[in-house]
Design a protein that fits this description.
single chain; alpha/beta; four-stranded mixed β-sheet; 3 helices; 8 strands; about 25% helix; extended
Amino acid sequence: MRQTDRAERIIACLQIAMLDIERVDFVSVPTRDVARARRFYADALGLTPSAGNPDEFETPNVTLALWQPEAQGVPFAPNAAGIALRVPDVEAARERLNAHGVEFLGDTVDTGVCLMGFFYDPDGNVLILHRRYAR
């Protein structure tokens, strides 16, 4: 096969593979106890349940959707990568969550561009209070 033929085939494959993704609509949050998770996301985090589905919580840019994987035959595994929740003040948000009994995974991290406070939801999913301060 000539080099130009190979290059043309690669370009054709890439064009087929490209999607027109507009945005992320939701992130699945695995849980074993939906009622407990609903209370945590509503009461501790202060998120508003979706009018159409009480297992979904709206944020300004993405929906957090509670999901029971075991009900669908999928093994439960918490999200260890973390979901970053932007807040105006990480320390103030930490204090509010501490009042709800949330324990943090160490001190607030200052990366030089943002502040982050890591904690678990009741199912062991990693959540991150986040505030970028560098431009």
